[in-house]
């Protein structure tokens, strides 16, 4: 056994769970390290508090004097909790989070010192961010970028640093991050959903999107993970024979949580409580060593920040527990990978869920309006939604019979389908009083009952209605939720805008009553968006054929999927909804394409190294043992050795064949890589996808075969069976 593998296994053999001290009730820890409403009430003057609340609820500006007051209070609060530094915390287009810490400490005349933090430092910073991806934005305009305070997501303390959530923009105003377009999309959905709400409640004043994510992940002992260069550099295993026992028995899913994982979760949950991340659910997932954590849903911007923060905290806490947490969508072959379901809905100022039917016919019509408009939005923009979840790592999952396919469809269940079918037959134009009564009592009146005991679930649908929310089930586990949430909220906002125009037109020109007009437009939408609805098995081949017949797109790879992002239709949409400018859209596309290429390039290099430096030399050493053995047998038994050493000789030949194949394939892959590297942008990404990536599986095949033949004592890479079964 290689020294690295041996040491790693030795190191892990005596691990026991870390004791987690739990002294206080969870609820009493909640939000303790967050500058939330409660802390603000304690620390801010009345006018400062009102000003911040106004900014949060109505997007008003906070003036400089107030910002100074807020900064001083924030600093006092943070220092009372042991903070020494502050940082603007933002989400650049790498998808991760970024922070640069500055001390509150300042010296005066070189001899005295004090802690200082003022409005200027709170509101705006220039993080010297020239190395973040910008997709050409800063080359064409100005080199500088700055971060600006987002008061809608509260500041928090992590370890000894006060973290202030911020947006990150170029000096010319273009967004260089994930948060800015998300905030603009949330503004758009607020505007257009509130306008539609006014049909049903003239006092409607605000609509927020809500998001409840479910984060899946793997926990691998860190010594074992560190012994694998592929896990270390790419986040996944590039080779590795599947263990005799994987997930076949289904004994991990919802099973007893292993003790070490449990200790990690308890520690993580305590950190989350302090940070105000309302985590509630934890359980084993399908694959061995795979788990899930999910919070109570929150306003979408906050929920996105909390997911990004959670992923950071998970990495830190996992280190304490001698684990490496893997967010990659497919870290191991032959067992399930990880996703991040995004549960989404819309909520009014009084916390009415717009995707939950109410008690009156009017409220049910409101539910139906948002329900049908969402379906229509996905129908019009399925490809864009698909693009929003595209990444090199998520390509492994989509359509791999463990995650929904790359074909976007909507599942609503048979009972709601029946309601929509009935609505399709509503008379065009004016409705008779009888018809109106019938509609209200018998069709939409039935909805609450239907949903009450609606147990229809479809785990194979990428976008499923689950009783009071839609669940976007195709998001990758490593993704930043801001991407899909920006798209979903933008397309629904645009759809609601169209809806309002059409309804108003019918009221004005056809003299229809409001509810008649609403019914009329919904009926058309139901008809027009029928092809996006699918309740069957999304994993089956039959659906792929059927979807093709229906004209639904099936963009299986990231380069293919991303193209729609820069289509004229998409740019028009973003510009109309004031979510992104053409420059911002194109920059994001360029970054996504480049990231895809780089990821495959890194994987190709690592695989080449492992195949050449680990697998082939080990196979040769073992082959030499066999040769030595055969030679010895010949010496003792003379020509009879051919019979006696038959197995050895065959094995020697087989090993040679695999070595030859690995060598030849690796060389060919390198050739293709070199060719792809000569191209730029989409062309390079496409070449990596079509010409380089296919070699990964082929090379792996031969390496994995060798793993099953070579003496276990010699094999250098920690095996799946050792990586995957933490107690
Ligand atoms: P499951 O889907 O496993 O049956 P739940 O229905 O309880 O479980 O919810 C799953 C996720 O959906 C949770 O993270 C929860 O916070 C979220 N969720 C529930 N209601 C909403 C809502 N109105 N908006 C957004 N997310 C929601
Ligand atoms: Mg779910």
From TrEMBL:
Residues 178-615 form the GS catalytic domain. GO terms for biological process: glutamine biosynthetic process. Residues 84-173 form the GS beta-grasp domain. Pfam families: Gln-synt_C, Gln-synt_C-ter, GSIII_N. GO terms for molecular function: glutamine synthetase activity. InterPro entries: Gln-synt_C, Gln_synt_N, Gln_synth/guanido_kin_cat_dom, Gln_synth_cat_dom, Gln_synth_gly_rich_site, GS_Type-3, GSIII_N. Gene3D superfamilies: 1.20.120.1560, Glutamine synthetase/guanido kinase, catalytic domain. It comes from the Bacteria. Belongs to the glutamine synthetase family. This is Glutamine synthetase III. The lineage of its organism: Bacteria, Pseudomonadati, Bacteroidota, Flavobacteriia, Flavobacteriales.
